[in-house]
From TrEMBL, chains A, B:
Keywords: DNA-binding, Transcription, Transcription regulation
Protein name (Swiss-Prot/TrEMBL): AcrR family transcriptional regulator
Keyword Cell inner membrane: no
Species: Nonomuraea soli
Recorded superkingdom: Bacteria
PROSITE patterns assigned: HTH_TETR_2 (PS50977)
InterPro entries according to UniProt: Homeodomain-like_sf, HTH-type_TetR-like_transc_reg, HTH_TetR, Tet_transcr_reg_TetR-rel_C_sf, TetR_C
Molecular function as annotated in GO: DNA-binding transcription factor activity; transcription cis-regulatory region binding
Domain HTH tetR-type, residue spans: 3-63
Record-annotated DNA-binding residue ranges: 26-45
């Protein structure tokens, strides 16, 4: 399938997931929304679950190229800024909110798991380079670092509904890397 | 109103919010679900928004007594464990997921804001005591500390749908307090 057609299908899928929740998402609805016929969709994706997983993992809307700035601090700041950029888009916020409600739906929960596992696999590059540079303290737990940082952005923007304030990414990263608690540190 | 009747109304409100979203929540529905008649509900709460806000802020289901263990580290670990306890309850997870989707709905967004502002007011006690003890580094940003810690729990449990692992609360707090990154530290 041509990449442009595929992206159109993925974005239609994510839009329907955001608007109607996983239960309201159907392959038929995606066909209608994307203008691609249902038979074609079923030729590429055997089920709604397969389509939803591919849309989450491969849509350009949620794309993640792990940053490579030359330092762990720089990479993590760029990563947090990327998450901030994503969660500022109403379309992405709605998809994330739908995933947050996945607990009651095993199929959506598996789909969300696949998405976040894929993201974490990509983020590993940041920590592997840090390890090679000797930047990463021994015993560091990369998933905990990522969950603290991304979680602070979700909490502030999606739950608390408050602005992040100046230099949020740098302040959060410095706090987690054991720097000064919440105050800016020179680069 | 008797506290027990009030709590029944609050829990009915949160259950309907979790099940049907804010748009599907009605004072009529709460009357039916709680067995309290609609006129009585309107005597106490002038609108659905007022009822939802009170239910979030005052329901025992979401109660928060800020811990007082004698140290900032101990208080934060207890706070994270409290958040973990809450987010392990399906009923609470569903309410939080509904709030995460508030961006598109001004009234629910205001309600979520009121809830999290109330929680943060209560959590201030932890940081005030730490400041008095000289436990809190100058320039520390309490809201950032809380958002990192609570956010890590939401991210791991609601989005990533992965287990927290051993001693999650202590490891997260030690990392944020500038201790060893992710490895346990003696109490």
């Amino acid at each position: 399938m041509a990449p442009r057609a595929q992206e159109r299908i993925f974005e239609a899928t994510l839009r329907l997931l955001a608007e109607h929740g996983y239960d309201g998402l159907t392959v038929e609805g995606v066909a209608k929304e994307s203008g691609v016929n249902k038979t074609t969709l079923y030729r590429w994706w055997s089920s709604k679950a397969a389509l939803a997983r591919d849309a989450l993992v491969h849509s350009e809307l949620l794309a993640l190229d792990p940053p490579d700035t030359g330092s762990l601090r720089g990479d993590l700041i760029a990563l947090v800024e990327h998450v901030i950029g994503l969660l500022t888009l109403p379309s992405v916020r709605a998809v994330v909110a739908a995933m947050a409600g996945a607990a009651g739906n095993g199929e959506l929960a598996e789909t969300a798991k696949a998405f976040f596992a894929d993201r974490f696999d990509r983020e590993q590059a940041i920590f592997e380079r840090a390890r090679e540079r000797g930047d990463l303290p021994p015993g560091a737990d990369p998933m905990l670092v990522v969950d603290l940082l991304a979680g602070a952005v979700w909490t502030r923007l999606l739950l608390r509904q408050e602005p992040l304030g100046d230099a949020f990414a740098a302040r959060a990263v410095d706090l987690v890397l054991g720097g000064s608690p919440g105050s800016p540190r020179p680069a």
